[in-house]
Amino acid sequence: MVATVGALLRKELLVELRTLESVPGMSLFAVTTFVVFHFALNQNSVSGDEAAGILWVTLLFAAMLGVNRLFVADQDQGGFDAFLLAPVDRSAMLLAKALALFAYLAVLELVAVPAFGLLLLAPPLGQTLPDLLLVLVLADVGIAAIGTLVAALAVQTRARDLLGPLLALPLLVPVVIGAARASSPLFVLAHPTGPQVRWLGTLALYDLVFGLISYAVFDFLLED
Amino acid sequence: MIELEGLVRRYGEREALSDVSLSLAAGQTLVVFGGNGAGKTTLLRVLATLLRPHAGEVTVLDRRLPQDAWAVRGHVGLLGHEPLLYRELTARENLRFHARLHGVQEDRVEEVLAAVRLSDRADEPLKTLSRGMVQRAAVARATLHDPELLLLDEPWANLDPAARELVEPLIGASSGRTRVISSHDPSGGLSEADLVLGLRDGRPALLEKVADVDPGEITELYR
User: What is the ipTM of this complex?
Assistant: First the structure.
């Protein structure tokens, strides 16, 4: 199983490195959105709930670009059939795709979070970064689990570009709420505190539930 | 090796395969003829475990489908219209990926690359290669894991006579493998066959040993 996941993940990252179809688009979208917010709000800086909301809604929509592309090469170039013909555990594909999406999100955030700090955020990012990192990791796990499940379902339909976001966004609303509430205390101007443990717990629980659901139903999505 | 009894496969309401029954022994070659949409590709995909039969009994490599599909995978080599290779990756990267999925040693990758004479172009992205070269890479992919059963959907498309000769030991009669071949070429197809199946609108219109087949019957399938 580990070797299969490794082979699938390596292939996934190689294809992305060669095509640059997902990560650059996601990053560019996020930075552009921050610029638009910067001018649309007519404010040089935001803080607290407002800042957390802007960050997480932007990251969510940027993530959707990656989710929509996740299985396209496999569907268009016969990768699904090749995988299904191999004597391997089908959950390996779920794990490899989720890990790939997690990696794409990490790169997106490497670009987007500093850009957010520079363009919009009022309090300095430096001190709160370790706490924010924890929230980002928990939210990314949820986005990767749900995104992979939805992408596998949507790619088999003709309206995959529409169906992906339509299915994923409602399922990801709790992730955005949890991540925004958890990170909001990190962005207050006076005396920023740590993330709210209650919301971190909620995020972790949601990750666990959707991780298990994805594992349980993924095989059926690949089956004829 | 392959036993079909009343196989039915539907796409929605339409029956793509209706009441197909046949028996193919190990080492033999079944060639399937029929016009576009006759059900040839669907039959190959059912045998490859990629599509579930909707009725009838299907036994491949002495295993019942779909229940024992897991035991059939890994023993079947499918060469279809699509090469099942990633265009952005090189032939070597593609084959190494498939070798890992099938638990095949990497030495075998070099062996099949040499067999289809792609060793010197194996580090170029597949999208830069000609269709014939991609087809040769697909042959290497389909035979990488030394499958017992080959399912070949018009395998010689895009191959010139020299390339066809090149892949003969891998997918030809001399490979010694059990084969199911879909073909539009009556003379070429018959020369490969032990058993001939003709499909019309998903129904068997012809099922005979090759010695008993009148080439006119094949031509009739396309009218």
Answer: 0.87
Is some CB atom of chain A closer than 8 A to the CB atom of B14?
no
Which residue of B101, B144, B149 to mutate against A (max A Cβ within 10 Å)? B101
Q: pLDDT tens-digit profile of A49-91?
A: 899 999 999 999 999 999 999 998 888 888 889 999 999 999 9
A2 touches B at CB < 8 Å: no
Q: How confident is the model at residue B170 (pLDDT cuts 50, 70, 90)?
A: very high
pLDDT tens by residue, B144-169: 999 999 999 988 888 888 888 899 99
pLDDT of A46 reads 86
- Contact assignment for B52 to A81 by CB distance below 8 Å: no
What's the number of domains chain A is made of?
1
Q: Does A4 touch chain B (CB under 8 A)?
A: yes
Does B74 contact A7 at a Cβ distance shorter than 8 Å?
no
Write out the residue range of the structural domain in which residue A70 sits: 2-222
B82 in contact with A, Cβ within 8 Å:
yes
CB contact under 8 A, B100 and A84: no
pLDDT at A192: 65
Contact yes or no for B84 and A77 at CB 8 A: yes
DSSP string, chain B: -EEEEEEEEEETTEEEEEEEEEEE-TT-EEEEE--TTSSHHHHHHHHTTSS--SEEEEEETTEEETTTHHHHTTSEEEE-SS--S-TTSBHHHHHHHHHHHHT--HHHHHHHHHHTT-GGGTTSBGGGS-HHHHHHHHHHHHHTT--SEEEEESTTTT--HHHHHHHHHHHSGGG--EEEEEES-HHHHHHH-SEEEEEETTEEEEEEEGGG--HHHHHHHT-
Better-predicted residue by pLDDT, A155 or B150? B150
